[in-house]
């Protein structure tokens, strides 16, 4: 079997496996969808929840891949740069300033703040010379912790700590028909990333290389930041925090396939979907009839993989 045929076969198998997980998620849950009112419940909750799993998983995994190329660092993703914390702060401020605002207004607040926060992170990286790539995510986590502390203080002062806690839970439990639809914008984001894939790949080689081949480095960074902020803001408002997803998935794919964004993007999206779907299924059955938030499962698994990647990096050095 030739190499292209082998790759096609593997990708086809990955698509089938991911599709099987997605279909399985439709039939996992406490409510009996084959009983009375089951069809209505299936349409109101199960289908929207499963679509949200697919779109959110693909979005956060792709965001991680784009951010890793833009920063030339494998340990960077929305969780380790403070992007999700900035999105949460934007959501909180929007809820305080305009408590009766709709979902789109809250989403706009989260997107704007995540964009600003990501730009601050990039600006910091350009101003400070770091001796090790391991320091970069640590700096991002510290910035995220500061933003998270500010959010907690504001939430305490405005009696909105419970709302903040619900956001940090990162669960698909409350995803219903009429609430998940903004996630469809992720399809457009994925198309935009694919179109600009070659530019992101060149930017991942460094600013000097990008400039020498005629690419506007700052414009590509701004485009990538905007796409990441848009996806993170939408997922934050609809679902919540999905930690380490954008860290684990791109690194696993890059280990086997290298760093070409265009060829890796479908694999990253598929693995992101599979990871979130498996985590959600486990969360639904592990202590049924109660549910464990997806963010808890992703946080445990992701932190272990994060440490493993750090140790692997250190052993190579």
In words, what does this structure look like?
- The model has no long low-confidence stretch (mean pLDDT about 85).
- This protein is mainly alpha-helical.
- It has one domain (about 45-315): ABC transporter involved in vitamin B12 uptake, BtuC (Orthogonal Bundle).
- It has helices spanning about 5-25, 40-70, 85-95, 105-125, 135-155, 160-170, 185-195, 195-205, 205-210, 215-240, 245-255, 260-285, 295-315.
Summarize this structure briefly.
The chain is 75% helix and 0% strand. The protein has 317 residues and is an all-alpha fold.
Count of individual beta strands: 0
What would CATH call the class? Answer: Mainly Alpha
Bulk shape: globular
Q: Determine the CATH topology.
A: ABC transporter involved in vitamin B12 uptake, BtuC
Radius of gyration: 19 Å
Spans with pLDDT under 50 lasting ≥5 residues?
A: none
Give the second-level CATH assignment, the architecture.
Orthogonal Bundle
Overall structural class, as computed from helix and strand content, comes to mainly alpha
How many structural domains in the coordinates?
1
Identify the CATH homologous superfamily. ABC transporter involved in vitamin B12 uptake, BtuC
Q: Oligomeric status of the shown chains?
A: single chain
SSE order, as H and E? HHHHHHHHHHHHH
The average pLDDT is 83
Percentage of helical residues? over 70%
Q: Biggest sheet, open or closed, and with what strands and sense?
A: none
Number of helices: 13
Beta-strand share of residues: under 5%
């Amino acid at each position: 079997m030739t190499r292209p045929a082998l790759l096609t076969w593997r990708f086809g198998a990955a698509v089938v496996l991911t599709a099987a997980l997605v279909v399985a998620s439709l039939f996992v849950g406490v409510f009996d969808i084959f009983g009375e009112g089951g069809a209505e419940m299936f349409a109101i909750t199960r289908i929207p929840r499963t679509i949200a799993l697919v779109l959110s998983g693909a979005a956060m995994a792709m965001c991680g891949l784009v951010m890793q190329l833009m920063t030339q660092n494998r340990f960077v993703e929305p969780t380790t740069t403070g992007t999700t914390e900035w999105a949460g702060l934007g959501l909180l401020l929007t809820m305080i300033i305009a408590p009766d605002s709709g979902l789109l207004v809250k989403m706009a607040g989260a997107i704007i703040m995540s964009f600003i926060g990501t730009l601050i992170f990039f600006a910091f990286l350009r101003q400070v010379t770091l001796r090790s790539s391991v320091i970069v995510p640590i700096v991002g986590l510290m910035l995220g912790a500061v933003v998270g502390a500010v959010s907690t203080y504001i939430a305490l002062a405005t009696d909105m700590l419970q709302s903040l806690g619900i956001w940090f839970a990162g669960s698909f439990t409350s995803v219903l028909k009429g609430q998940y639809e903004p996630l469809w914008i992720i399809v457009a984001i994925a198309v935009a990333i694919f179109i600009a894939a070659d530019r992101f790949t060149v930017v991942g080689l460094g600013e000097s290389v990008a400039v020498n081949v005629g690419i506007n480095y700052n414009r590509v960074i701004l485009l990538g930041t905007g796409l990441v902020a848009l996806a993170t803001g939408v997922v934050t408002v609809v679902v919540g925090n999905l930690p380490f997803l954008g860290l684990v998935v791109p690194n696993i794919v890059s280990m086997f396939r290298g760093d070409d964004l265009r060829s890796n993007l479908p694999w990253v999206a598929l693995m992101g979907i599979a990871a979130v779907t498996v985590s959600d299924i486990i969360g639904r059955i592990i202590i049924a009839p109660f549910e464990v938030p997806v963010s808890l499962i992703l946080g445990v698994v992701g932190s272990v993989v994060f440490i493993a990647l750090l140790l692997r990096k250190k052993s190579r050095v």
